[in-house]
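HOLO CASE FILE
Compound: magnesium ion
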Amino acid sequence: MVNLQNVVVRKGGKDILKGIKWSTCAGEHWFVMGGNGSGKTTLMELLAGYVWPQRGSVAVLGETFGRVNLLELRTRVGFVSPWVFRRMAAEVPFEDVVASGFDGSVGHYGQKTSRVAAAVRRQLKFFGCEKLARQEFGTLSSGQQLKAVLARALVHAPSILILDEPFSLLDIGARLDMYAFLLKLSRCQDAPQMIMVTHHREDILPFFTKGLLLKEGRVLFQGSRESAFQPGMLAKCFGLSPKILKEVLV
Ligand SMILES: Nc1ncnc2c1ncn2[C@@H]1O[C@H](COP(=O)(O)OP(=O)(O)O)[C@@H](O)[C@H]1O
Ligand SMILES: [Mg+2]
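Model generated. Tokens follow.
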């Protein structure tokens, strides 16, 4: 699904990702962890086709960057990130937020074709938000806003779904509610591969069986969930004492 070889990404004259090698296979769901500034968001933007590598090779869904139309690729990769929230206009109704996933815009969607309207209705039903269809984005709760942005990402049935710290603004109730939706999504026959950046272990539902740990722009670890969660590994990732971690992690 994803295949990165020796990837370097530079921003503002500085190497942010430094020689990343990482690959994922169909059927796997991955979590991504790493300290602030370790390059998680940059890596997600790269996969979604919003950032270009300076060196190395990037293949997403079998398409190699340099030979692929990025606009076309973006329609196959759902993207949920703070970037989307920041750009979404407050007055756009829930259903238009969802429809805007079709053209990659942020909420300004004109006349819907019957195919788009049907796909939007399916998403509203999946998230149980039919009654919110005409409610403006700015008046939704944080949990409802996340549902709208998630539905926008899913509306064109992507093969990969990228979630960059999706739950950071939610209270515990809204968080548990969203876990139920991710679980339901993971059980769908045509579920996309989920790749989720998070700082919270409880966000990492059991179907996330693979973990990628980043440290200062490099891959520290990629592999099984259990190995990623070893106190020694987390200690290395976040620069903490393994002894203290063993005491506080239960
Ligand atoms: N446009 C930019 N110009 C210069 N530096 C940037 C830019 N965007 C991000 N960075 C830097 O790149 C590093 C990684 O950022 P980011 O990918 O957002 O990390 P994370 O999501 O892990 O916190 C940070 O040190 C950040 O300051
Ligand atoms: Mg980030």
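CASE NOTES: Residues 1-76+160-171+191-250 form a domain with the Rossmann fold fold (CATH 3.40.50.300). The chain has two domains: 1-76+160-171+191-250, 83-157.
CLOSED: yes
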